[in-house]
Amino acid sequence: FFFLYFPETHGISFRIQITVKEVLDTDVLLKLLFHLPVNYPSTLPGISVNSDQLTRAQCTDVKDKLLEQAKRHLSEPMVHDLILWIQQHLKDVIKQSARASSEKTTLSKGTSSEDGIWMLLLHLDHMRAKAKYVKTVEKWASDLRLTGRLMFMGKIILILLQGDRSSIKEYLILQKTSKVDVDSSGKKCKEKMMNVLCETEVQSQHKRFQMFEVKEYSTLEELQKEFETAGLTTLFSEFVPPLLK
């Protein structure tokens, strides 16, 4: 749907909201603002992009791609064509954005310090579609270059991640907004029963995980040993035993 307003005499601005189906395993609501200057279409429109399902960097990449397309339509009406284009190509733009972010992480890896590494501990209530859920978590961790563990012990499900803070933030967005599980009727659903137990900077006494692994533990002692080996005894004591109550 559309909203129009006329800011002074500097042209026309359109606010447009469109839903793009099945991007990042969920529907993405794009909020687009087009400002058409008085001499449009001889002059490019101003474009702003926002979305609760995308990161700020992804929104910037979408805007840049729209401006690239706009240059191809200079001197002809283009807003409708731009909307159709982004509906058809949003998934590709997001994939390119992820690759660029991954390459940037690789280039900066040699200069990044331990001070920039963060840790995240999540608690999940359940997984109905366990195999699909686990595969999704593994893919996100791989794409974002995060290491750590997906841990099962009885009914306890924990996700422990280490990596660049921006990647940690992006993982949280994916976890909250994507359809990762199914409800009681078997319909795809978002994760609504996740708790962020801890989000903190990795300290010198913490050991770095070298990879992301899915592990199952038969006893609480086995799970505790995993934390202790990583120098995370305090983290375990503070957050895990209360989950048994």
TrEMBL record:
Q: Which GO terms describe its cellular component?
A: cytoplasm; nucleus
Q: Which UniProt keywords apply?
A: Cytoplasm, Nucleus
CDD domains in UniProt: RWD_RWDD3 (cd23819), RWDD3_C (cd24164)
| Top-rank taxon, per record | Eukaryota
Q: Can you give the residue ranges of the RWD domain?
A: 1-93
- Predominant subcellular localization, coarse grouping: cytoplasm
Protein's UniProt name: RWD domain-containing protein 3
